[in-house]
Amino acid sequence: MVDAAVRPANAPIVEATPAIDVARVNDLLMGTWGDVRRQAREMIKDSAFWRKDELGKDEHRERVLSQLHLLVDNKAVHRAFPKRFGGEENNGGNIAGFEELVVADPSLQIKSGVQWGLFGSAILQLGTEEHHDKWLPGVMDLSIPGAFAMTEIGHGSDVAAVGTTATYDPETEEFVIHTPFRGAVKEYLGNAALHGIAATVFAQLITNGVNHGVHCFYVPLRGEDGVDLPGIGREDDGLKGGLNGIDNGRLSFDQVRIPRTNLLNRYGDVAADGTYSSAIDSPGRRFFTMLGTLVQGRVSLDGAASWASALGLHIAITYATQRRQFDGADGQEVVLMDYGKHQRRLLPRLATTYAQIFAHDEFLQKFDGVFSGRTDTPDDREDLETLAAALKPLSTWHALDTLQEAREACGGSGFMFENRLVGLRQDLDIYVTFEGDNNVLLQLVGKRLLTDYAKQFQGKDAAALAKFAVGMTAGKLFHGAGLRQLGQAVSDFGQVSRSVERGLREEQQHDLLAGRVQQMVADIAGRLRAGGKDKALGARLFNENQAELIEAARAHGELLQWEAFTDALRRIDDPQTKKVLTWLRDLFGLQLIEKHLAWHLIHGRLSMQRAAAVSSYIDRLCARLRPYALDLVNAFGYEPEHVRAPIASGIEKQRQDEARAYYADLAATGKAPIEEKVLKRQKR
Amino acid sequence: MVDAAVRPANAPIVEATPAIDVARVNDLLMGTWGDVRRQAREMIKDSAFWRKDELGKDEHRERVLSQLHLLVDNKAVHRAFPKRFGGEENNGGNIAGFEELVVADPSLQIKSGVQWGLFGSAILQLGTEEHHDKWLPGVMDLSIPGAFAMTEIGHGSDVAAVGTTATYDPETEEFVIHTPFRGAVKEYLGNAALHGIAATVFAQLITNGVNHGVHCFYVPLRGEDGVDLPGIGREDDGLKGGLNGIDNGRLSFDQVRIPRTNLLNRYGDVAADGTYSSAIDSPGRRFFTMLGTLVQGRVSLDGAASWASALGLHIAITYATQRRQFDGADGQEVVLMDYGKHQRRLLPRLATTYAQIFAHDEFLQKFDGVFSGRTDTPDDREDLETLAAALKPLSTWHALDTLQEAREACGGSGFMFENRLVGLRQDLDIYVTFEGDNNVLLQLVGKRLLTDYAKQFQGKDAAALAKFAVGMTAGKLFHGAGLRQLGQAVSDFGQVSRSVERGLREEQQHDLLAGRVQQMVADIAGRLRAGGKDKALGARLFNENQAELIEAARAHGELLQWEAFTDALRRIDDPQTKKVLTWLRDLFGLQLIEKHLAWHLIHGRLSMQRAAAVSSYIDRLCARLRPYALDLVNAFGYEPEHVRAPIASGIEKQRQDEARAYYADLAATGKAPIEEKVLKRQKR
């Protein structure tokens, strides 16, 4: 069906409407590394990179391995590596190009992420020059396919608790890598079932009877003869919910000995006599520093998920502008996109996707700043971690939600594999729990928000705190002070819709979204304070507030996205384009406010009247945006070779036109049968 | 992995807690046809009925076909057929037994639904005795595998608009079945790609130049030689997002001639000379009567989806009571189910699943009453249709949501195919758009609610209407009259949590849920009234209110579920069990109220204070229910042969115990390395 899907391989489908500047919007969306993105998209127009849906797991795995070699041939995956090995030391561009692979095949994206983004990055980021010289060339040219062995069956999110041990033996100057119990088996590792010949293994480093915590070791898995080395155990994870082009599996180690120098020793080393040394004194900070160097996985998932959402919406919205179902008032069948409910299903998700893509570019700039060394302070690293933990959950959940809504909006066609939506959703499913479980990540963000909140009071005296407490109460429940501050109570008694729109513009959206984050964090902090120094009570209180803390973190991420979208608006000159994109930003902001409307009401941030108007304002925005829907998805810049979904190829319009022509012809030639009900009416 | 999954094949996993009467709750859940459900569950303990995940599409299709023969051998699928052919004329029991197949393999469920529930039912319900005699025996024993050819590429939900024609030719006394354009090709039909040798085809019946609307025809597809008959076109739909054990495909007809008597003529007939006759005068009513006989598909999807949710929760909650992650205040790793957020993720969904299973049994009773003829009036049929259109969307969406949350709650393990969750979700995906697109069905419910609403005013005079309008306004925006009626404003200034709990018990929950449906419908009706007789304006207004009408329909369905749950409570005698199930019902009610909290606030149904307390009340209910979580999923009655998910087999507890024993042993023998941070603390 590939032919049908890609044909007609010419201009994108457009509707005859007052247009926006699609090229300019595309530039904005492609972002800072647009050139690399365009290069990657051009490369994957070659069908050799495409997913072949009909392949079974085993053939799919082999195809993806061969595609990895194609990526090497195309110099598509070396951008982040050191120049002395032929890389570009271009961290941002590397991630941008990597993300684009998702529309070729998410298995290809993630398997190349395993090889160069995880296995390769561990050597690059955690190893030192000797390690780079020895292994990076083989990693880069894929002569050393490798696994990244961090997660264990027993421990996913809590990496510090992994059970694998690396015990130093000074007699032979070797580390003994060992899996002490079944739960410590390394699990879900790409390249582990079949292709990996080495692995970067995270294990508890034990020397001289002291456990120095988790460190990373380079462990060969296979000898020259291609046979697994003694003590190496492998199991195949078999079929998964998606990403079946990747050979995920388990690795276990039965007293496997590796040279002392295979410890990737950038942040901690063991001398020949077994003495441990590290430039970072605190074991906790050392652990987080090591993990922090691997943040790029989260960065890239945020981008890949956002672009997958974009592709899903391109397909569903293109189809919705062609597909007709049920007669309208004029007796003609109505195009799906003209239904109020259909607009409500797709357009807010389109707005969110825009916001995420804009937010992602800022995130990528931050990442590039840190990893290039330009803006690499501990604070920058911490901000980057927090940003990753805030944005990756939102965009990956959004991708699943959007791809599902897109599939449902295309009905049975959406369920056909050839139309891409189900396959993308299956593959992206795991994005919400790997590289950090989304809920665990948001909890990290929440804790950071609490810490930042507490910092405000450092060094302040009791009087200042008391004053603050009063301020909190005044802004809280049932008092309406918030309302008076915003002047809503007065202004809302005018003409409803216009006045309400004026009261829900940029500044008010920001106040509402930012105010919610601040208030939620302050409220939670207040409730946690009761724990004092009682550890058990503290844990209980934290648990009682866990769900809300995660909500506050989500609100924080949403605010960041809203701000990124708003910043992007300032970079548009064409007034018509700016107007339409502003509506889209408003739609993003208002659907966030609608989602949490009860919160804004209870906390006195919105008057009843204004709150009651939010939903109808969203409806009006959807109706205004409707004529630009196709422009807005065309601005994603996907070409037929990227879309490859027959229903978004124009085939649906052809079919509908053919049917309409058939009936018109019947009527014109007088051959149409008369409808029984018309006949009955005539007889009466 | 089947062995690991099913072992230990003995008692279900239990926690040592004050228990509820699990057997009694299981009886309630199994419902009116519990005996048939138990019989079906016993049958599918045989691994011959299980899905084999490793099979590719083609082998999976053949396996499912062979399983259909097994169903025949087990007399598992004939319960609804006439006694004279060996059936039982037991409509409710038939559906109950059929639904249970979903835990064996949803492909098996749906393919048997195609054969006996759609193809067979069309002959049974739309045909007459001659047709029954001729074809039902072959349908029942599977010597005539058949397709149900209703949906077309161009028309899914709008069946009345299908393009296929059946034109009567009096000269030969034949109907000519024809596909006039590509959009009229029959699409997504199970048994069409491979196995079907006949089809029940829905086409516009044209005779003597009059189109009498859609009727159903029995069309042979293959001759005795197994070769497709002249004019029959078949295409294979290929890979789908799920249900790949079914050979879905397309059928087209190029002037295919069938005998006049192949019209399934129960509701409309054509005489040899071409004269049309029907006992139902109105073509519209005739069409809906014919379609109405096929409601059982929706009935069975509601049940199957609810039980699939139950299985997903059984797996995720069992795992969550064993899996530990991150240290608690006591230094021990915490069981997932003890986390506040984890409870929030799984327990409200458990409550909803209970509500749906109870509502489904009432629905099934209604269905059985109509189809047995016991309570078969036009009103009963209309109520049944509405019930189907209200409940099927809610339960099928809930299944996708629940299976996804369950998969995420199991982390990477949830993504492994062997643990069932991803496979079930993929297979059930299409349930939300087939047998009636969920949004289209809810819109039907919404229209029915509007009609019923309008009926209240039939024959009333202007004064009554005016009085009613005043009543509406008084209960509406910004007035707080609703609050005073409920006495909330006064009672809520007492001690917060207890008073709020008292104010959110059964009666208040019902008032809030029912009040919302009534108010929404009244509001929408009021806004639509402005359309008057202006068709175009009416269509525009309807479109503007479409999303909200669908919401009102959803609220109606939720209310029915809540009422069914509440009725079930009255059938529990054991006080402890009743208390726990009442909490669960409260959790269901309150999470519905929480979801629409802004609505209740804006419409003056809840005071600010009471609204602010809803979420924390839900948290308290989750904590109270936590000790009973395992009992509540064990009450679904699934045995290891139904669950077949290694992570829910006890394997996780074994692994966690093994790891804890390993560390305890190390500590006891003094061999444990000292932690670096502990060492540092000692040195200070």
TrEMBL record, chains A, B:
Residues 147-256 form the Acyl-CoA oxidase/dehydrogenase middle domain. Pfam families: ACOX (PF01756), ACOX_C_alpha1 (PF22924), Acyl-CoA_dh_M (PF02770), Acyl-CoA_dh_N (PF02771). Residues 292-450 form the Acyl-CoA oxidase C-alpha1 domain. Keywords: FAD, Flavoprotein, Oxidoreductase. Signal peptide: none annotated. The keyword Transport does not apply. Residues 37-140 form the Acyl-CoA dehydrogenase/oxidase N-terminal domain. The keyword Transmembrane does not apply. Its cofactor is FAD. Residues 511-648 form the Acyl-CoA oxidase C-terminal domain. Belongs to the acyl-CoA oxidase family. This is Acyl-CoA dehydrogenase. It comes from Microbacterium algeriense.
